[in-house]
Each structure stands twice: as C-alpha cells, then as structure tokens.
Design a protein that fits this description.
By secondary structure, this protein is an alpha/beta fold. The chain is built from nine helices and 15 strands. This is Dehydrogenase.
Length: about 325
Amino acid sequence: MAVLRAGLLGVGMMGRHHARVLRELDGVDLVAIADPGGDPHGVAGGLNVLPDIEALIAAGIDMAVVAVPTRFHEDAALKLAAAGVHTLVEKPIADTLEAGQRMVDAFAAAGLVGAVGHIERFNPALQELRRRLEEGELGAVYQIQTRRQGPFPSRIADVGVAKDLASHDVDLTAWVAQSEYETVFAQTTFKSGREYEDMITISGRLASGVIVNHLVNWLSPMKERVTIVTGEKGAFVADTATGDLTFHANGTIPLEWESVSSFRGVSEGDVTRYAFAKREPLRVEHEAFRDAVLGKPSDVVTMAQGQRTLAVIEAALASAGTGGSVSL
C-alpha cells in the first residue's frame, strides 16, 4: 500500500482523536499538524505545531483533515483544493449553503476527494442496522425517529444544535433509508442565552414516504443517542453511544384479551440483542477516506452529500422561523 502524507488542521477536542487515528492507520503517515491555538492536548508528539493552513500545505501533504470551527471550513478547504490536497472536513460541511457549494465545486473541478466527517454512518450499530434493512429483515420501513440529547458542550461556539448535532441525524437517516428528505417542519428554543438554538425538533417525510422525527438538544442532563426504525415486522433500536442494536419483533401469538389486542394493533414479540464486531467509528471513517484517496471502492461521505444534509438543516431552521413546513 502506498504511504500517504497526511496533515491535520486543528488539534482541539475532536482533532486530538484524528491525530491518534491517523498515526495508527495503515498506509498513512501523519507528517504535519497546524493549529493557531497551539497544542492544548499535547498530541503533536515530535511534530512542530504549525501556525496556519499555508504552513500545513507547504509541508507537502497528499491528504488533510480539517477539524477547526465550522466558520473556518471554507477558507481551509478552498486553499487545500487549490493545492491539490484531498480533504476530509468535520461536519457540518460549512456554516452556509453558499460556502458549502463553493467547496463542493472546488473539489469536483480539481478532481480531488472532498469528504465530510459524518461519523455516525460508520457506527457499528447503524452499519449493522442498514445491512439488516437491505436484507429485508424489517420488511417495509414506516418510520425513523432519533433522539440526540445531552448537556451543552463548551467547545461549540459558532453554530447551534441543529448544525452541530441534528446534522448527524439527518445524514444517518437519509443513509439508512437510502432516500432523501422531501419535506421538513421544525421548532426551536433558545434557553441558554446564546444567539443560536439549543433545542430543535424536526419532523418530516422522505421521498420514499418514510416518516421521520428528530429530537435534538443541549438542555438535557442525560446523554442519549438513539435511532429507532419501525416497520412491517417490528422495530430496530440502535444505541450509537454503545454500538448496540436490538430488534423488537411483532408478536406471532394471538392475544386472548380481545380489547387489548384490538387496541394495540400489533402484539409484543421476541426481543433480540445482536452480537457483532464493533470497530471504532472514527477509524472506519478514516479507512474509507484513505481508500477513496487511493481510488479504491469506499463508503466515504462526499462533500455533495454533506451539502445535501446542510440543505435539510437550513430548511429546518427556516421552518422554525416561519412556522410552516418547507419542501426540499
């Protein structure tokens, strides 16, 4: 395998994990790190911490990971594209649709791999869920709902909970269902004194007809990361915090209590918690990016897909502002 020279822009809360995985990845050599804020977590090792993106590019890199605040994504990505560097930016792709589209266009024009770090696609529970859906184990899919809530992370200052967290749910839902969003309706609240929303609920429908619902906030003392897919034969529950997947089957034994049976519609059946290999999602994501750079088959999340997710989030925020549903 050819050794790719990798650079990392940003070694904050997320960047430090990128540094670790890049150092452990076969076929990749982390040769340069840049962060104008220095190295708060001490991950540089023997590397000098470079001051900016220009210095990172001058180190002679083949690929880069951008893990800086969202508002800086466009500037870094466009400079990397101009320099011929394949790039993975953390999600969301950008802070505006216009910026995101410029990034998509730049990498397409340069013939480079442009990717977005929607890491939930690489969560073992969701990968196993999608595999079982493709094999028809649920039958027809009726509804996908997610809950992603927890305390406010002080590291986020430039976007609200919709772009930072709900983008995960939008991306994973479209990917699991293999269908794009058609309509969305959303509501937001502002409770923490910041200019950005800290709670959002999004409901909508995919082009396939599947109903979706997302509850996302930074206002809960409990951390929850749950995806529920309900369908013809029961419901899958994926806990992406633990990587667990459980199936609740519709019952096959008729209920003798007639009033309960007619009220519930379906009866409770067997509950199965699956055992499967659970690899670190960030490592799997980096492997996908590396393979894409090498021209191998890959499930990397493209910038075009990241832009589509941002469009759904912007539509949800627009809906919250107007009080009406938005068609995409």
